[in-house]
């Protein structure tokens, strides 16, 4: 029998009615002849309740106990889903992470899946079981203790099972009906994509389209697992949702597939620093140690014989999440006091936003950057920082122009047309 | 280090404050030099919530899924208790049943503990851990699935751990402060017992003094585990609660230790049945198959050549829980229709109560029964059925006299005096 993995997030199993509705979708796939592995999250709200208790009991908690406590939410859903399916006459049973076992590293709270033996579940499929319901987000460490994969880890569980069981597809049921060309709240012209390449999804996910956890997309890409994102609140249909797949499986790639944005950016500029080998390391080393996630980096052209500096001087600009601005300032000022770096002034701009265009077609189409800059220029929007990758161009602009920029770029790249 | 087992029931760990209070009691014992094994129940209300979900999802549920779901409540408490102890600077960690592992039979929902290997936890004690917090009520079957021991199973878990680890004592923390000579709601003269023998506790427990689960007392008796029942809501003290122990450890046994009662009784009489070998089996076989818990049984003296009966005839009276009366009637009438038994009439009396006096001293003191009957006679209370064991005399009386009977017997046997 072909195998299908179906994952239901917290809102899709929020109560017994929704579990019953999800079970009906599972039954549909069983009816098509699939052996189904269902991955479930905790009923929405349950994980937060457990996390709240942990934090109240022990603010600097032992992560091993945190995992043992928090994983219980998924176990409850798994059992309830198995019972619901049995009620519908479908042979089903639940598995907790340690029962499979989902072998992970010992990094409690953020463990990585190392191996998922398939023999145990496959034996049951051989004996006539039709659905294995597995508690997502959890595993077991080499020491025999319960681990969790971190928030959103159920997506990763689902993809890992799809890889281990060579599933035909991994369907991620969530509360949105797919991946859009941009945020529909910003332009009503936003269009649901039928297909998107792994690489594009990664860029969109890390830019704020929080449909799929980044790690799960990486894993899907590595093992070439076909991922489908779809809503559990829509009527079932064969072309529902968005398929996230390898580039080769998309007949005609879009030059640009989507416009992403992030409001939560801060721009930091170190004014007048010595321009010498190792200077970048001496700046970004302390930032990394302080846990600052630096995103875009721009270094100005060098100026020689600047006042009070022996060699050449330059400016360095970078962006980071806005809530890490204070931490970044502290780390840089401390490094200055210790004599590790030398700058005249540190300027912070917290009124910026990042807008990006993403598309694998960019690789073979020149002129995307030029067009983007022209569109923004026509709207009178000044670009503060530019960063590019193979399939993405990002700019930092004044936050007040963000919506305008997204709308203009969405129009200019014809993203409302299939 | 000597080992102590401490068990906290649902009301003793009902919320984070109570878990913190329980943890303080654990800390006291650690301070005395004990290695402590803490057995915890689910936070009160949690198990009922989970059971409710199971019943709503699948009325005739798969008991294996029931166990997987319902056991999660204890896991949460175990983790929170371990965290709380760590916060107090006490090295502690949690164990779920399968991690110890608590090996049980496969009788899901009512599994029996078969083995508790001590090496895993003892190794940690050797490495400096002071408290092992174990989720009560659960274990793992030979098939690797989660089992539960049935309601109240956490008491049994505690005693089984005390036996496996040769603990000095097993303290059961609950919401009552010990075992009383009778129900204090019936007479204010009821007195807390300092000590009680296992056998007496068993008679009191099965008679309705729901302080300790019967199975846990049986297990304690078999392995000679000293059990102490005490309240988690009282100030700690060395002579708190009631010690349940072997007869030999009680210096001077009371002739009578307590007066127990049960309101929930029904008296059933089969009038005019054939008195021949095997007749008792033919009556109580169908009752047992129908799940009726028959308690007291009395057979009248035989009468020969009674109208319409070839051989001798007799009457048979028995008592059972009042909510099983209909089931008993149905089973007996069906057996009559099938020709398995022959009786003229089935009479049911649901206005009865059972009152018992219990005491190991009875074995060596004659006259307890005579005194009991005299006391009841003096109060004008008619006795309907009498049943005796080595350490207990029970009578069935009209329910309206129950309180009076308990009070009169409590006075007559001087139970208010130490």
TrEMBL record, chains A, B:
It comes from the Bacteria. InterPro entries: AceGlu_kinase-like_sf, ACT-like_dom_sf, ACT_Aspartokinase, ACT_dom, AKii-LysC-BS, Asp/Glu/Uridylate_kinase, Asp_kin_monofn, Asp_kinase. Pfam families: AA_kinase (PF00696), ACT (PF01842), ACT_9 (PF22468). It is an enzyme of class 2 (transferase). GO terms for cellular component: cytosol. Pathway: Amino-acid biosynthesis; L-lysine biosynthesis via DAP pathway; (S)-tetrahydrodipicolinate from L-aspartate: step 1/4; Amino-acid biosynthesis; L-methionine biosynthesis via de novo pathway; L-homoserine from L-aspartate: step 1/3; Amino-acid biosynthesis; L-threonine biosynthesis; L-threonine from L-aspartate: step 1/5. Substrate binds at residues 47, 74. Keywords: Amino-acid biosynthesis, ATP-binding, Kinase, Lysine biosynthesis, Nucleotide-binding, Transferase. GO terms for molecular function: aspartate kinase activity; ATP binding. ATP binds at residues 7-10, 174-175, 180, 185, 210-211. Its EC number is 2.7.2.4. It catalyses: L-aspartate + ATP = 4-phospho-L-aspartate + ADP. Residues 268-360 form the ACT domain. One of its GO terms (biological process) is lysine biosynthetic process via diaminopimelate. Belongs to the aspartokinase family. This is Aspartokinase.
């Amino acid at each position: 029998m072909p195998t299908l993995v179906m994952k239901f997030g917290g809102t899709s199993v929020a109560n017994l009615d929704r579990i019953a509705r999800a079970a009906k979708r599972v039954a549909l796939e069983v009816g098509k002849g699939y052996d189904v592995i269902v991955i479930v999250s905790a009923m929405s709200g349950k994980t937060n309740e457990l996390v709240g208790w942990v934090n109240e009991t022990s603010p600097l908690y032992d992560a091993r106990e945190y995992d043992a406590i928090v994983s219980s939410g998924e176990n409850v859903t798994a059992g309830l889903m198995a019972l619901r399916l049995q009620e519908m006459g479908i042979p089903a049973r639940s598995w907790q992470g340690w029962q499979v076992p989902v072998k992970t590293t010992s990094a409690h709270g953020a463990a990585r899946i190392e191996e998922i033996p398939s023999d145990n579940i496959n034996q049951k499929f051989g004996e006539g079981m039709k659905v294995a319901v597995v508690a997502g987000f959890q595993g077991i460490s080499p020491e025999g203790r319960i681990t969790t994969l971190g928030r959103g880890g159920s997506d990763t569980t689902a993809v890992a099972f799809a890889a281990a069981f060579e599933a035909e597809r991994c369907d991620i049921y969530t509360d949105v009906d797919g991946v859009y060309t941009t945020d529909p709240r910003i332009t009503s012209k936003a269009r649901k994509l039928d297909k998107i390449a792994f690489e594009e999804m990664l860029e969109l996910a890390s830019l704020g389209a929080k449909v799929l956890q980044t790690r799960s997309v990486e894993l899907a890409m590595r093992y070439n697992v076909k991922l489908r994102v779809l809503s559990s609140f829509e009527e079932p249909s064969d072309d529902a949702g968005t398929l996230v797949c390898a580039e080769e499986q998309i007949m005609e790639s879009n030059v640009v597939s989507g416009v992403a944005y992030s409001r939560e950016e801060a721009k930091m500029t170190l004014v007048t620093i010595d321009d010498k080998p190792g200077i970048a390391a001496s700046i970004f080393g302390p930032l990394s140690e302080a846990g600052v996630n630096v995103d875009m980096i721009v270094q100005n052209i060098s100026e020689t014989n600047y006042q009070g500096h022996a060699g050449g001087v330059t400016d360095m600009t970078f962006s980071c999440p806005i809530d890490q601005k204070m931490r970044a300032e502290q780390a840089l000022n401390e490094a200055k006091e210790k004599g590790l770096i030398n700058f005249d002034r540190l300027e912070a701009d917290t009124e910026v936003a990042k807008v990006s265009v993403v598309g694998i077609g960019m690789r073979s189409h020149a002129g995307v950057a030029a067009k983007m800059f022209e569109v923004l220029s026509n709207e009178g929007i000044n670009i503060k920082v530019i960063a590019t990758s193979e399939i993405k161009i990002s700019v930092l602009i004044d936050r007040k122009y963000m919506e305008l920029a997204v709308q203009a770029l969405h129009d200019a790249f014809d993203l409302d047309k299939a």
